[in-house]
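Hey, can you fold this one?
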Amino acid sequence: MTYHYDVDAVVLDIEGTTSATGFVVDVLYPYSRSRFGALLSERSGDPDVARAVAQVRELTGDPEADATAVEKTLDAWLDEDRKATPLKTLQGIIWAEGFARGDLVSHFYDDVVPALRAWHAAGPRLYVYSSGSVAAQRAWFSATPQGDLLPLLSGLYDTENAGPKQEAESYRRIAESAGIAPDRLLFLSDRPGELDAARAAGWHAVGIRRPGEPYYEQGVGDHAQAGTFDEITVSRSTT
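Sure. Predicted structure:
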Protein backbone atom coordinates (compact mmCIF):
# COMPACT_ATOMS: atom_id res chain seq x y z
CA MET A 1 0.00 0.00 0.00
CA THR A 2 1.14 3.52 -0.76
CA TYR A 3 0.30 6.44 1.52
CA HIS A 4 0.13 10.09 0.56
CA TYR A 5 0.15 12.95 3.06
CA ASP A 6 -0.35 16.65 2.49
CA VAL A 7 1.72 18.05 5.36
CA ASP A 8 4.03 20.90 6.23
CA ALA A 9 6.72 18.68 7.73
CA VAL A 10 7.91 15.11 8.18
CA VAL A 11 9.63 14.19 11.45
CA LEU A 12 11.97 11.20 11.38
CA ASP A 13 13.09 8.67 13.93
CA ILE A 14 16.55 7.19 13.18
CA GLU A 15 17.12 3.71 14.65
CA GLY A 16 14.96 1.14 12.88
CA THR A 17 13.44 3.84 10.67
CA THR A 18 16.06 5.57 8.55
CA SER A 19 18.91 3.36 9.68
CA ALA A 20 19.70 -0.11 10.98
CA THR A 21 19.57 -0.51 14.75
CA GLY A 22 22.26 -3.17 14.38
CA PHE A 23 24.72 -0.61 13.04
CA VAL A 24 24.17 1.62 16.06
CA VAL A 25 24.44 -1.25 18.53
CA ASP A 26 27.32 -3.10 16.87
CA VAL A 27 29.43 -0.14 15.71
CA LEU A 28 28.56 3.06 17.55
CA TYR A 29 27.93 1.64 21.04
CA PRO A 30 31.32 -0.12 21.30
CA TYR A 31 33.02 2.97 19.89
CA SER A 32 31.57 5.14 22.65
CA ARG A 33 32.12 2.54 25.39
CA SER A 34 35.84 2.42 24.62
CA ARG A 35 36.12 6.20 24.97
CA PHE A 36 33.94 7.08 27.98
CA GLY A 37 36.86 6.81 30.42
CA ALA A 38 39.13 9.16 28.51
CA LEU A 39 36.35 11.69 27.96
CA LEU A 40 35.42 11.76 31.66
CA SER A 41 39.01 11.99 32.92
CA GLU A 42 40.44 14.36 30.36
CA ARG A 43 37.56 16.73 29.72
CA SER A 44 35.70 17.05 33.00
CA GLY A 45 35.79 20.83 32.63
CA ASP A 46 33.92 20.81 29.33
CA PRO A 47 30.47 22.30 30.09
CA ASP A 48 28.56 19.60 28.22
CA VAL A 49 30.55 16.82 29.89
CA ALA A 50 30.14 18.43 33.32
CA ARG A 51 26.38 18.80 32.82
CA ALA A 52 26.05 15.17 31.77
CA VAL A 53 28.08 13.98 34.77
CA ALA A 54 25.86 16.02 37.09
CA GLN A 55 22.80 14.40 35.48
CA VAL A 56 24.28 10.92 35.99
CA ARG A 57 24.88 11.70 39.66
CA GLU A 58 21.33 12.98 40.01
CA LEU A 59 19.77 9.97 38.30
CA THR A 60 21.79 7.50 40.37
CA GLY A 61 21.30 9.39 43.63
CA ASP A 62 25.07 9.53 44.17
CA PRO A 63 26.24 13.18 44.25
CA GLU A 64 29.82 12.10 45.01
CA ALA A 65 30.20 9.64 42.11
CA ASP A 66 33.68 9.92 40.62
CA ALA A 67 34.66 9.36 37.00
CA THR A 68 35.08 5.60 37.52
CA ALA A 69 31.61 5.28 39.04
CA VAL A 70 30.07 7.42 36.30
CA GLU A 71 31.74 5.31 33.62
CA LYS A 72 30.41 2.14 35.27
CA THR A 73 26.89 3.60 35.21
CA LEU A 74 27.22 4.59 31.55
CA ASP A 75 28.37 1.07 30.66
CA ALA A 76 25.40 -0.43 32.52
CA TRP A 77 22.97 1.89 30.75
CA LEU A 78 24.55 0.96 27.46
CA ASP A 79 24.01 -2.74 28.23
CA GLU A 80 20.35 -1.98 28.98
CA ASP A 81 20.02 0.26 25.90
CA ARG A 82 18.60 2.84 28.28
CA LYS A 83 17.60 6.13 26.67
CA ALA A 84 19.16 8.25 29.42
CA THR A 85 19.85 11.84 28.39
CA PRO A 86 23.37 12.11 29.90
CA LEU A 87 24.38 8.85 28.21
CA LYS A 88 23.15 10.17 24.87
CA THR A 89 24.92 13.50 25.44
CA LEU A 90 28.28 11.86 26.06
CA GLN A 91 27.82 9.39 23.22
CA GLY A 92 26.99 12.32 20.95
CA ILE A 93 30.25 14.10 21.82
CA ILE A 94 32.28 10.95 21.15
CA TRP A 95 30.46 10.07 17.94
CA ALA A 96 30.64 13.60 16.55
CA GLU A 97 34.40 13.54 16.96
CA GLY A 98 34.57 10.05 15.44
CA PHE A 99 32.59 11.13 12.39
CA ALA A 100 34.72 14.28 12.04
CA ARG A 101 37.91 12.20 12.12
CA GLY A 102 36.56 9.76 9.57
CA ASP A 103 36.56 6.86 12.04
CA LEU A 104 32.80 6.54 11.54
CA VAL A 105 30.43 6.78 8.58
CA SER A 106 26.68 6.64 9.18
CA HIS A 107 24.27 4.07 7.76
CA PHE A 108 20.99 4.64 5.92
CA TYR A 109 18.68 2.11 4.31
CA ASP A 110 18.84 2.32 0.50
CA ASP A 111 15.34 3.76 0.16
CA VAL A 112 15.83 6.59 2.65
CA VAL A 113 18.10 9.21 1.07
CA PRO A 114 16.28 9.31 -2.32
CA ALA A 115 12.97 9.67 -0.45
CA LEU A 116 14.29 12.46 1.78
CA ARG A 117 15.51 14.38 -1.26
CA ALA A 118 12.18 13.88 -3.04
CA TRP A 119 10.16 14.93 0.02
CA HIS A 120 12.33 17.99 0.56
CA ALA A 121 11.87 18.97 -3.08
CA ALA A 122 8.10 18.50 -2.76
CA GLY A 123 7.89 21.26 -0.15
CA PRO A 124 7.50 19.78 3.36
CA ARG A 125 10.24 20.52 5.84
CA LEU A 126 12.20 17.63 7.35
CA TYR A 127 13.06 17.25 11.03
CA VAL A 128 14.66 14.55 13.14
CA TYR A 129 13.46 13.42 16.57
CA SER A 130 15.71 10.76 18.06
CA SER A 131 16.79 9.59 21.49
CA GLY A 132 20.34 10.21 20.27
CA SER A 133 21.57 13.69 21.13
CA VAL A 134 21.35 16.61 18.71
CA ALA A 135 25.16 16.51 18.43
CA ALA A 136 25.01 12.85 17.41
CA GLN A 137 22.19 13.53 14.93
CA ARG A 138 24.14 16.38 13.35
CA ALA A 139 27.19 14.16 12.95
CA TRP A 140 25.07 11.26 11.66
CA PHE A 141 23.45 13.26 8.88
CA SER A 142 26.61 15.13 7.91
CA ALA A 143 28.90 12.09 7.54
CA THR A 144 26.96 9.79 5.23
CA PRO A 145 28.06 7.70 2.23
CA GLN A 146 25.79 10.00 0.18
CA GLY A 147 27.41 13.20 1.44
CA ASP A 148 26.23 15.87 3.86
CA LEU A 149 22.45 15.62 4.31
CA LEU A 150 22.13 18.39 6.89
CA PRO A 151 20.96 20.94 4.26
CA LEU A 152 17.81 18.82 3.89
CA LEU A 153 16.89 19.26 7.56
CA SER A 154 15.13 22.16 9.21
CA GLY A 155 15.71 21.09 12.81
CA LEU A 156 16.86 18.40 15.22
CA TYR A 157 15.12 17.25 18.39
CA ASP A 158 16.20 14.90 21.17
CA THR A 159 15.06 13.92 24.66
CA GLU A 160 16.73 17.00 26.12
CA ASN A 161 15.17 19.73 23.98
CA ALA A 162 11.84 17.97 23.32
CA GLY A 163 11.33 15.36 26.04
CA PRO A 164 10.73 11.58 26.20
CA LYS A 165 9.67 10.03 22.91
CA GLN A 166 6.69 8.14 24.30
CA GLU A 167 5.00 11.20 25.81
CA ALA A 168 2.48 13.23 23.80
CA GLU A 169 3.70 16.46 25.40
CA SER A 170 7.05 16.06 23.63
CA TYR A 171 5.32 16.11 20.26
CA ARG A 172 3.27 19.16 21.25
CA ARG A 173 6.55 20.86 22.19
CA ILE A 174 8.06 20.07 18.79
CA ALA A 175 4.99 21.35 16.95
CA GLU A 176 5.13 24.59 18.91
CA SER A 177 8.88 24.96 18.37
CA ALA A 178 8.54 24.37 14.63
CA GLY A 179 5.51 26.64 14.38
CA ILE A 180 3.46 23.94 12.65
CA ALA A 181 -0.08 22.81 13.45
CA PRO A 182 -0.15 19.22 14.77
CA ASP A 183 -2.37 17.97 11.96
CA ARG A 184 0.23 19.22 9.46
CA LEU A 185 2.97 17.00 10.88
CA LEU A 186 3.83 13.40 9.93
CA PHE A 187 5.97 11.22 12.21
CA LEU A 188 7.77 8.08 11.06
CA SER A 189 9.02 5.54 13.60
CA ASP A 190 9.32 1.81 14.17
CA ARG A 191 8.18 2.01 17.81
CA PRO A 192 4.46 1.76 18.55
CA GLY A 193 4.72 3.72 21.80
CA GLU A 194 6.21 6.67 19.94
CA LEU A 195 3.57 6.48 17.22
CA ASP A 196 0.86 6.42 19.88
CA ALA A 197 2.30 9.53 21.54
CA ALA A 198 2.53 11.42 18.24
CA ARG A 199 -1.06 10.55 17.37
CA ALA A 200 -2.22 11.60 20.83
CA ALA A 201 -0.67 15.01 20.11
CA GLY A 202 -2.71 15.28 16.90
CA TRP A 203 -0.02 14.25 14.43
CA HIS A 204 -0.21 11.83 11.52
CA ALA A 205 1.93 8.77 12.17
CA VAL A 206 3.18 5.88 10.05
CA GLY A 207 4.98 2.86 11.44
CA ILE A 208 8.05 1.69 9.54
CA ARG A 209 8.48 -2.10 9.64
CA ARG A 210 11.81 -3.39 8.37
CA PRO A 211 12.66 -7.12 8.62
CA GLY A 212 15.37 -7.77 11.17
CA GLU A 213 14.64 -4.69 13.27
CA PRO A 214 13.79 -5.18 16.98
CA TYR A 215 10.15 -4.06 16.66
CA TYR A 216 9.39 -5.84 13.38
CA GLU A 217 7.64 -8.84 14.95
CA GLN A 218 5.74 -6.70 17.45
CA GLY A 219 4.31 -4.55 14.69
CA VAL A 220 2.98 -1.02 14.99
CA GLY A 221 -0.47 -1.63 16.41
CA ASP A 222 -3.32 0.01 14.54
CA HIS A 223 -1.13 2.59 12.83
CA ALA A 224 -0.60 2.77 9.09
CA GLN A 225 2.55 0.84 8.26
CA ALA A 226 5.13 0.85 5.50
CA GLY A 227 8.07 -1.41 4.78
CA THR A 228 10.14 1.29 3.08
CA PHE A 229 10.00 5.03 2.50
CA ASP A 230 9.10 4.27 -1.12
CA GLU A 231 5.56 3.54 0.08
CA ILE A 232 5.11 7.11 1.36
CA THR A 233 4.71 10.27 -0.71
CA VAL A 234 4.26 13.74 0.71
CA SER A 235 3.38 17.15 -0.62
CA ARG A 236 2.67 20.57 0.83
CA SER A 237 -0.35 22.47 -0.38
CA THR A 238 0.07 26.21 -0.66
CA THR A 239 -3.59 27.10 -0.34
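Residues 85-101 form the longest helix (17 residues). Let me know if you want another pass with a different chain boundary.
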